[in-house]
Hints:
It holds the Pfam family tRNA-synt_1g. By secondary structure, the protein is an alpha+beta fold. 37% of the residues lie in helices and 18% in strands.
Amino acid sequence: IAAAADAWARGAAALPKPWQPQKPVLPVEGMRNVLITSALPYVNNVPHLGNIIGCVLSADTFARYCRLRNWNTLYVCGTDEYGTATETKAVEEGLTPQEICDKYNAIHTDIYRWFDISFDCFGRTTTQSQTTIAQDIFQRLLARGFLLQDTVEQLRCEGCQRFLADRFVEGTCPFCNYEEARGDQCDKCGKLINAVELKSPQCKLCRGVPIVKPTHHLFLDLPKLEQQLEAWLEQSWATGDWTANARYITRSWIRDGLKPRCITRDLKWGTPVPLDGFRDKVFYVWFDAPIGYLSITANYTDQWERWWKNPQQ
């Protein structure tokens, strides 16, 4: 209180000069460097106030606060553009997935500009940087033995001649009986779902009843990471500021034991899988999308690793 009163008495002229970072904004030795991301909005809709309040506005407020504190701050975001939601929207509007992404990325960009959101970079995930970084992470996982191959039973619509991944199929949740569960998760109870577990499944495109067929996929070997993750979580829970909900959900996954998680899909729209036998598949959007934070930074600056691989600063 005494310090605040003293600063007030000395007036604005005595305040430190505002920090003007160079462009692009890069970490500076000896300064407090802050990298801020807000959740990547999905590209298949027009943002509304709830979307902005949910993540973008709070991150923007924090970014402005950090800049006022003269902290060297980079704030990045962008549209999440791969996955079945884009394909289903493209079918609805009679456009290609790329045209849908181009259309809605422009809408998102204009809306955030109108709200004066102070992004240093607002990008997108359908870029060459995304492909390069995602495939590099995949190759590192493969080389270190963190991937499995397995044949799985999947739903296939014979009328549409396609496997029904994720949002291409809807049915009743086997856990809570929610009638609009998707083929990868239930939005009501939050459980992860394999599409063949859905009760009364329907093809989202033609409303036909799918059949079950085998297909070969790649899995992230999460059980191999479980012990290391559990130790990290215990430390993070003790020292971090986790919400009660985040703690509860994470504990339930650990308590039930991590399961191998499929990271490939029988789709065309996505980051290609760079491995023989799987080159007709793409990465599952939840493997691909979080890498968007890195690739958007990489499109902003070719020195992106100074932000993402530089814990000392």
